[in-house]
Structures are given as C-alpha cells and as structure tokens.
Amino acid sequence: xxxxxxxxxxxxxxxxxxxxxxxxxxxxxxxxxxxxxxxxxxxxxxxxxxxxxxxxxxxxxxxxxxxxxxxxxxxxxxxxxxxxxxxxxxxxxxxxxxxxxxxxxxxxxxxxxxxxxxxxxxxxxxxxxxxxxxxxxxxxxxxxxxxxxxxxxxxxxxxxxxxxxxxxxxxxxxxxxxxxxxxxxxxxxxxxxxxxxxxxxxxxxxxxxxxxxxxxxxxxxxxxxxxxxxxxxxxxxxxxxxx
Length: 243
What we know:
- 21% of the residues lie in helices and 35% in strands.
- It has helices at 79-84, 122-126, 128-137, 158-167, 194-200, 216-228; strands at 6-15, 20-27, 40-47, 50-57, 68-73, 92-99, 111-117, 142-149, 171-177, 189-191, 208-214, 236-240.
- It is built from 6 helices and 12 strands.
- The protein has 2 domains: 6-99, Translation factors (Elongation Factor Tu (Ef-tu), domain 3, Beta Barrel); 111-240, Nucleotide-binding domain of ferredoxin-NADP reductase (FNR) module (Rossmann fold).
- It starts with 5 loop residues before the first strand and ends with a strand.
- The model has no long low-confidence stretch (mean pLDDT 95).
- Helix 5 (194-200) runs parallel beside helix 6 (216-228).
- With 243 residues, it is an alpha/beta fold.
- The chain is globular and about 50 Å long.
C-alpha cells in the first residue's frame, strides 16, 4: 500500500548553530496539521535518481506557530542535508505523517526525565505547552530536561528552556557539555554526558518515567542504566536519531 504524502511550502529558516538549521513550512492545502507533541514527520524526496525518506521530530510549539517546524544537522555529503539546506522560499516538499509514540500519555508520574542529545531535544520543545499545563495542575510533579551537546554553541533552544524553567519552579534544565572547558559553569551547566546526569538524579522506577531521544549510543547506555534500576519497559520511551 502506497504511503500517502502531502505537500508543504517552505516559508523560512534560521541557523541555530553553525551546523543545525531550523526550518518552517506551511501546508499547501492550508488545512490544520494535527500532531501530538513528540511525533515526527517523514520527508520524501528524490536524490541522484533515488527516492529517499528521512524523518524529523516536529519542533512546532502548539499555540505559538501554525507552521510545521523541524531542525536538522548538516551532514557533509548527506542527501537530506544537500536537499533541505538549499531550499528556497516557496519551494515545496512532500511529507507523510505524523508518526511516533514518543508522546506524553495520560498517566501522571511524580517525575518526568526527558533526556536528549543534539536535535533529539526538538520533540521536548513541542511538549512545553502540555508540560506547562501538567506542572500547573500538579504541584508535586517535577520535570528534568537533560540536553547533551559538545559545546555551548551547540545547545539548541537553550533560551526557551531556561525561560520555561523561570516560569515553572518544578522544571529544571540541565545542559551537559562533553567538550567544553567549564572554568566558570553556569548553574544549569555540567561537564560530561547525559547518561551520567541521569544517574546523578537518583532514578526511581516507583516515581519516574524516562524519555530518551537522540544519539543511539546515548540511548543504549541509558537503557542499560534503567535496567540496573529495574525500570519496567513501559516507563522508558525512546527515539533514536541516525545520521
């Protein structure tokens, strides 16, 4: 059965870092795009006589934008990078979706642990309005968002997450830097990797639900860690990003 696709019109883009671009599109038919924060879309395109498909988490913040937004890292010689980084205004692309189950479900744990590397943090950006509602409705809920990158320059949407933390005392943003010399670290910065940051948060399967998105190595190591703490499989949700 053929996958149903629909066209999107390119509206604008901006560089978030020297290697990561944030792109925004509108539906050509002008109809609403109904997605659940945490889901992804697939881009269908032709490159060197081959039909290719690449998937990206939706970065749109509901209530703040009617466009379909996502970000991607530039991969030298990568087909998707060459295609998407060179779009011009009014160009159209074909997509399918939304897909995916990396979403906030109806359960209400005591704590959400949202861990990501690089562009794997984009689904958490789209979750912010829903997290705001849950944090407001339940003062006992805590959310810990951990982002792992190489340097400060690579920290995607950092200002938005810090602003959200100022608005919600029970939300904490942790930036883990693997290659930055932290002589004067900011309060939310730590040297090292997300996996170590998770362990420092004293994982507890009786109260935590864990989300993992990004680099496969990070996810695999984090899953091993959750098994050491005897987390049920349904409390560990993951989405791997493969370049």
